[in-house]
Amino acid sequence: MQMFLQVAIIVEKEVKERFEVLDSWRGIAALLVALFHLGMNSHVFELSLVRNASLFVDFFFVLSGFVLAHAYSSALRKGMGLTGYVIRRVGRLWPLHIAVIIYLVGYEFHTMSLVESGFLSPRPLFSEENARGIKLLVENIFLVQAVGFERHVGWNAPSWSISAEMWVCILFAIICVYCSRKHTTVIAGLLVAAAMLTLWFFAPTYMASSVVFAIPKCIAGFFTGYLVYEFRNKIKIEGLRHGSCIELATVALIVGYLSIIDVERSDPMTMLAPALFAVVVWVFSFEAGAVSRLLRIRPMVWLGTLSYSIYMVHDVISNQLGAHVRGCIVDKAIPGCENFVYISQAFQETRYFADGVAIAYLLMVIAVSTATYWLIENPGRKAFNKLASVVSRKRVSRDSTTRDTRPAPSEKYSG
């Protein structure tokens, strides 16, 4: 029982020691990914930072490796147990994911009813043609769509990265449990090298790949983040001198990098993404400059808190709005849909109007994400964390009982 309490204290301590600035970075990155997937003909989408924002998925991977190393690596080595860890990770990723899937399945049935009623023209439903097949649905439910060789993101498109991260997180835990800290660091370096070589030689779009090369892409980013954490602990720097200058230079580095690459083409420079995002994570983990002070204000921290919800719901919002607009324009069968024709024409006539729509879309994403955070994500995580604590407590109690009932070793007789 004492071991369980020690591990529980470690985990709780690590969770409380949050990197708020990095959370804010995650929120900003999630909004940029949301703008990227909106894909409107607007001034906003013309910005290279937005057009190449899909690479921020690699930032999420690097940050996850760093944060999970901080929160769990010591606890796993001190007896936390794989079962409790996996339950916690499932609770972090799965509840909101499955809620979105349930909504999309319901929407598919709703669309089917509209087609049968004649409100919409016939279209394939629950079909592999539009990446809404039953097979892909089952894979999404169990978060295994990134493990196989699927070429369609399907259902909720961003979830391919969640699938990859789930399994790479488990790999990380297994390594931490069975290997020393030194050996884990060596293995992490070898995994990063192997993943990078795989992407370099086999991925047509290099680091801009998605579901087909999800696992090596996630391994490259996640274990880079782990190495950043170990490096940060080893050199033991309390803070950064000239923090503001270093932070501004780091922001300029990332903005400049995303301005010169092109994810729409096979650009080898995308391979630099994990390393450059590692610099961001390392620099801003110290929270030592003016940019960090800006990112620590309450709205920015709250944006970071909502980042996972933003990432998981934004594509649904953009796709459903777009599908409704297209359905109204093409079918013109839904009452009041004539208004959407004017909106569509406005998209083509003025980019300023599209800019306004993009802003409204982001506000809608934030509003929906706030609701999903409070109603689904946060309660789901707490429920799974409670379950993990119960499972860990029972395991420790069982181990203690086994030790107590084991026959005492016989003392050596000395004559």
Q: How would you describe this structure to a colleague?
A:
This protein is mainly α and 415 residues long. It is built from 17 helices and no strands. It has helices at 2-16, 20-38, 43-46, 48-51, 56-77, 82-117, 134-141, 159-178, 181-202, 214-235, 243-260, 273-284, 290-295, 298-305, 307-331, 338-349, 351-405.
Topology:
Elements (H helix, E strand, L loop, with lengths): L1 H15 L3 H19 L4 H4 L1 H4 L4 H22 L4 H36 L16 H8 L17 H20 L2 H22 L11 H22 L7 H18 L12 H12 L5 H6 L2 H8 L1 H25 L6 H12 L1 H55 L10
Helix pairs in contact: 1-5, 2-5, 2-14, 2-15, 5-8, 5-10, 5-12, 6-8, 6-15, 6-17, 8-10, 9-10, 10-12, 11-12, 15-17
Low-confidence stretches: 1-16, 326-346, 406-415
Proportion of beta-strand residues: under 5%
Structural Rg = 24 Å
Order of helices and strands: HHHHHHHHHHHHHHHHH
Determine the mean pLDDT: 83
Helix content: over 70%
Class by alpha and beta content: mainly alpha
Enumerate how many helices there are, as a single number. 17
Main sheet: strands, sense, barrel:
none
- Gross geometry: globular
Distance between the termini: 39 Å
Compute the number of strand runs: 0
Keywords for this structure?
415 residues, mainly alpha, disordered N terminus
In short:
The protein has 415 residues and is mainly alpha-helical. It contains 17 helices and no strands.
